[in-house]
Write a structure and sequence with these properties.
CATH topology of the largest domain: Rossmann fold
Number of helices: 14
CATH superfamily of the largest domain: Peptidase S8/S53 domain
CATH architecture of the largest domain: 3-Layer(aba) Sandwich
Strand order of the largest sheet: 6-7-5-8-9-10-11
Largest sheet: 7 strands, parallel
Number of domains: 2
Length: 561
C-alpha cells in the first residue's frame, strides 16, 4: 500500500489530512495547468477557513495541514499560484514545497544491514571506547571527565533533525528510539534518485546520506566498549528526519519535524544545516523576483513559528553556524542561491537587517562555531558577535600549519558512518573491507564478536553543533525534573539550559592579532576574519567553548533567574 501520510501524534494533530477541502475551484485555465506542491502559511490571527478559501480561489487543493504553525500543504497550478494566493489578507505567504529539475550526482543504493545484536542495559556503566583516543573533541569539551559524574539519562530525548540516523549501526542502535523516530522527507526522484521503498518514504532507522548518522554519533554514541562514544552516551536518540537522500533540507519537512519533536517531548534538537534553496532568506531583495521574495518571507515566518513552538514546549535548539567563512553580521554577496535547479543562482547583495540564514538566525536558536584541535576557529566556519552563541570542536583540516598534523584527517571529527553509504560511495567494498579510497578519507572499521561498525572523519560546523547538543543533553540529565508528558523522562526549560551552557563555557579570548589571515593556507583574502569582543563574549567563541564537566558539576550556580 502506498504510504501517503505520516502518523498523527501528541496533543496537536501534526499532519492532519484536510477532509473539509477535497476539490479545487478556480477558472478553467488554471484547472487545466499541471499542478505542483506548495506550502501556504495562514496569517497569524486570520481565519484558517479564509486562507483555505483563498487557496481555492487560486486553483489549489489543501492536502495536509500542520496546525502547530498554521502551514497548509497544497497542490496548485504550476504558474502564478504563489502571487495569487499571497494576495489574500488571510495568507502570510506561500512557497514551492519541493524543487524541480535537479538530477542527483550519485544515489546511495541499498546495502545489507549490519547485524542488529542485543541492546545494552538501560543504563550502561560509563567508560571510554576503543576508538575514543582519536576523538580530541571529547577531551576539548571535557565530556570524558563529565562521564564519571553524569553520562546522561535515558529519559532525556535528543532529536537529530538531519538526513536520518542509521539505527542499525552498532554504536547507535542501543540509544536509538525506533518507536518515536519519524521520517518527514519523502524521496524526490528528481533529487534523490529512484525510490528504494514503497511510497518513497525511507524507514525511520535509515540514512542514505551519512551526515545525520555522523552527527548522532558525536552526540550520543553508546559507551559500551565498542567503536566510539558520544558526548552524552546514555541519552536517547530520536530521528526526526527532515533531509533528503541528496542532503537537501526543505522547509516543510523541517517545520513538520520541529513541531512533531516538540509534541513528543524532546529535550534538545540538533540542526546542522541551512534550509534550502536559499542560503539567506530575504523578504524584499531587489535581485529576486516578486515570487521569490514571497517564498523567502514564507520560509522565514514558517520556521520562526516552528522554532517558537518548540521553545514554548521546552526544547533547547542548537544549530551549526555554517561553513561559508563569513561574519554573519556582515554577510557577503550571496552567489549560491537558489541552489536548484542548476544555473538558477544569481548574485544577491545581502541586507543584514532583513535577511536571515535559517534556522541559524532564527528565534531561540544557539548557533555554534567550529574549532580545530588547537582551539583555533576553523577556516571555513562562520562567526560574528551578532549570531555566535558558543563554540565547539568541529574539525579544521588545515590546523597545525608547520607541524606533522597539518592537513591530516586526524584534525577532523571521527564519528559513525552508515554501512550502506560507505558501500555506495566506494569507501567499503562488498566484502566489508575499507577500500584505498576509504583509507585516504580516513574511513575505519572496528569489529568485535562478529559485529562490525564503520567510522569516518568529517569537518564543519555540522560537527561542532552536536558537541554542544550533547552538553545540553547532559545538562538536562543532571538538573532536569520529571516530565509529566512522558513518564520516566526529564525536562529542563531551554532558558535554564542556555544559562548553564553560557555560564559554564570555557572562556577563550580573541587571538592576537585579532585579524586572522588564512592566506598562508592557500585561501583567498575573503577568508580572513576579525574577532570582535572580549573574554566574556566574542565573535569567534561566543560565550566560550562548551564544557561538559563544568556544566554537570557547576551548572547549579546558574539555575536561578
Amino acid at each position: 500500500m502506498r504510504r501517503t501520510k505520516l502518523p498523527i501524534v501528541g496533543a496537536v494533530a501534526l499532519l492532519a489530512l484536510s477532509v473539509a477541502v477535497t476539490g479545487a475551484s478556480g477558472g478553467g485555465a488554471q484547472a487545466a495547468q499541471p499542478t505542483v506542491d506548495y506550502l501556504v502559511l495562514v496569517e497569524e490571527g486570520a481565519s484558517r477557513d479564509a486562507a483555505v478559501a483563498a487557496v481555492h480561489r487560486a486553483g489549489g487543493v489543501v492536502t495536509e495541514e500542520n496546525t502547530g504553525v498554521g502551514l497548509l500543504a497544497v497542490t496548485g497550478p504550476a504558474n502564478g499560484f504563489v502571487l495569487d494566493v499571497a494576495a489574500s489578507d488571510a495568507v502570510a505567504g506561500a512557497t514551492h514545497a519541493r524543487p524541480v529539475g535537479r538530477v542527483p550526482d550519485a544515489k546511495p543504493v541499498a546495502a545489507e544491514q549490519l547485524p542488529t545484536g542485543t541492546p545494552r542495559p538501560a543504563e550502561a556503566a560509563p567508560g571510554m571506547d576503543p576508538l575514543d583516543g582519536q576523538l580530541w573533541g571529547l577531551s576539548m569539551v571535557r565530556a570524558d571527565l563529565a562521564r564519571d559524574h553524569q553520562p546522561g539519562h535515558r529519559g532525556v530525548y535528543v532529536g537529530v533533525l538531519d538526513t536520518g540516523i542509521d539505527g542499525n549501526h552498532p554504536d547507535l542502535r542501543a540509544n536509538f528510539n525506533r518507536q518515536l523516530s519519524r521520517n518527514f522527507a519523502k524521496d524526490i526522484p528528481e533529487l534523490d534518485g529512484p525510490c528504494e521503498f514503497v511510497g518513497c518514504l525511507d524507514p525511520a532507522d535509515r540514512d542514505d546520506d551519512g551526515h545525520g548518522s555522523h552527527v548522532a554519533g558525536t552526540l550520543a554514541a553508546a559507551a559500551d566498549g565498542f567503536g566510539v562514544s558520544g558526548v552524552a552516551p546514555n541519552v536517547t536518540l530520536v530521528n526526526i528526519r527532515g533531509g533528503q537522500d541528496s542532503g537537501f533540507l526543505f522547509v516543510k519537512p523541517v517545520v513538520d519535524a520541529l513541531t512533531y519533536g516538540s509534541d513528543i517531548g524532546l529535550d534538545v534538537i540538533n540542526m546542522s544545516f541551512f534550509i534550502d534553496p536559499w542560503l539567506f532568506n530575504c523578504p524584499a531583495n531587489p535581485a529576486d523576483t516578486p515570487e521569490q521574495q514571497i517564498e523567502q518571507r514564507t520560509t522565514i515566518e514558517s520556521v520562526q513559528r516552528a522554532l517558537d513552538y518548540a521553545h514554548g514546549r521546552g526544547v533547547t535548539l542548537v544549530s551549526s553556524m555554517g561553513n561559508t567563512h563569513e561574519d554573519l553580521g556582515r554577510p557577503r554577496t550571496d552567489v549560491r542561491s537558489p541552489n536548484y535547479p542548476p544555473g538558477a543562482a544569481h548574485p544577491r547583495p545581502i541586507d543584514n537587517a532583513t535577511c536571515l540564514k535559517m534556522p541559524t538566525e532564527g528565534n531561540h536558536v544557539l548557533p555554534v562555531v567550529a574549532l580545530g584541535p588547537s582551539q583555533a576557529k576553523a577556516d571555513r566556519s562562520n562567526y560574528g558577535v551578532e549570531q555566535t552563541a558558543l563554540s565547539a570542536p568541529g574539525g579544521y583540516f588545515k590546523d597545525g600549519f608547520g607541524t606533522p598534523w597539518y592537513e591530516t584527517n586526524e584534525n577532523k571529527i571521527l564519528s559513525t558512518y552508515p554501512h550502506n553509504v560507505a558501500v555506495a560511495l566506494g569507501d567499503v567494498d562488498a566484502a566489508g573491507n575499507v577500500t584505498p579510497q576509504g583509507q585516504a578519507a580516513g574511513v575505519q572499521k572496528y569489529c568485535k564478536t562478529g559485529v562490525c561498525g564503520y567510522y569516518r572523519f568529517l569537518e564543519g560546523t555540522s560537527m561542532a553543533s552536536p558537541h554542544a547538543s550533547g552538553v545540553a543533553a547532559l545538562t538536562v540529565s543532571e538538573y532536569g525534573v520529571p516530565d509529566p508528558r512522558r513518564p520516566g523522562t526529564l525536562a529542563l526549560s531551554p532558558d535554564k539550559v542556555q544559562r548553564i551552557l553560557f555560564g559554564t563555557a570555557h572562556k577563550v579570548p580573541c587571538p592576537t592579532p585579532r585579524t586572522v589571515s588564512y592566506e598562508h593556507l592557500g585561501h583567498p583574502a575573503e577568508f580572513n576574519a576579525t574577532c570582535e569582543g572580549d573574554l566574556s563574549f566574542n565573535g569567534f567563541y561566543g560565550h566560550g567553548t562548551v564544557d561538559a564537566f563544568a556544566a554537570v558539576t557547576r551548572g547549579k550556580d546558574h539555575l536561578e533567574d
